[in-house]
Amino acid sequence: MKQRTYSIVLEPEEGGGYAVTLPALPGCFTQGKTVEEAMERAAEAIGVHIAGLEADGEAVPEEREPPRLVTVTVARPSAADGGAAICPDR
Fold first, then answer.
1. 9-88 domain in CATH 3.40.50.300?
2. CA distance 13 to 34
3. How does residue 79 score in pLDDT terms, banded at 50, 70 and 90?
4. Where are the domains of the chain?
5. Which residue has the higher pLDDT, 89 or 8?
6. DSSP for 15-36, written as a single string
């Protein structure tokens, strides 16, 4: 079996735990109560997702480069502004 490496995104959930998404594998997601559990479940979800793609004869996406996490600040437009201003943080 070919070894693959994917970046995962852990987003804290309101009630605790983490929602996990995989930018390189759209439709592949899971969750976990702790970071460790979220990572373990992500590995399981990736395996199942890849197996499904292969069973369907579809190509398995490779992660070309790790995703970048950036922050943008969006000013709430007023009626006088006529639009929104997006100002990237640096």
1. no
2. 11
3. low
4. 9-88
5. 8
6. TSSEEEE-TTSTT-EEEESSHH
Task: Identify the three-state secondary structure at position 74.
Answer: strand
DSSP label of 81: T
Region 68-72: mean pLDDT is 93
Instruction: Provide φ and ψ at 45, rounded to 5°.
Output: -65, -40
pTM: 0.76
8 A C-beta contact, residue 31 and residue 13: yes
Per-residue confidence (pLDDT) for residue 86, from 0 to 100: 61
- What does the alpha-carbon distance between residue 63 and residue 24 come to, in Å, rounded to a whole number? 6
Residue 46 has pLDDT above 80, yes or no: yes
